[in-house]
Amino acid sequence: VAYQPFPGPQDGMPPPPTTGGKFVLSVPPTPEQQQALRNAIVNVSRALAGNGKGITRETISLRLASSRLPNLSLIDLPGLTSVPLVSLGQPENIRDLLRELATSFAANPRA
């Protein structure tokens, strides 16, 4: 999941275009809003990586618009694991796949 803040409409700039679902959250978000956003991320994750514990190189972008947020980007990578959960859909070589994914992000000078 990639998090990127953008100036909000209250800052005199239009919000960025979206390609997925759009959520308007209060500050702080209500528990219902948090759950709806969490469900949307899970649904996109399942569409990209399957219903099990699979992974994908595709990035799920979460763009937030507010003048109260710092201007930075965060990437949430999957954690490293040593024991594959084959019964839950992970491939036997999950350790190598995760290490390769983390290494590719770490090698990026813009990351």
Share in β-strands = 5-15%
Side-by-side strand order of the widest sheet: 2-1-3
The number of helical runs is 2
- Secondary structure class reads alpha+beta
- The residue ranges in which pLDDT falls below 50 over 5 or more consecutive positions are 11-19
Helix content: 25-40%
How would you classify the quaternary structure? single chain
Number of strands: 3
Which series of helices and strands comes N to C?
Answer: EHEEH
| Alpha-carbon Rg, integer | 16 Å
Mean pLDDT equals: 77
**Overall 3D shape:** flat
> What is the domain total for the residues?
1
Distance from N terminus to C terminus (CA atoms, Å) equals: 14 Å
Could you describe the 3D structure shown?
The chain is built from two helices and three strands. It is an alpha+beta fold and 111 residues long. It has one domain. The protein has a three-stranded mixed sheet with strand order 2-1-3, with no helix packed on it. The longest helix is centred in the middle third of the chain and has 19 residues, at 31-49. The protein is flat and about 45 Å long. This is Dynamin N-terminal domain-containing protein. Residues 1-21 are annotated as: Disordered. Residues 32-84 form the Dynamin N-terminal domain.
Keyphrases for this structure?
2 helices, 11% strand, alpha+beta, 111 residues
Topology:
Blueprint: E1 2-6, H1 31-49, E2 61-65, E3 74-75, H2 94-106
Parallel strand pairs: 1-2
Antiparallel strand pairs: 1-3
Q: Brief overview, please?
A:
InterPro entries: Dynamin (IPR022812), Dynamin_N (IPR045063), P-loop_NTPase (IPR027417). With 111 residues, the chain is an alpha+beta fold. It has two helices and three strands, in the order βαββα.
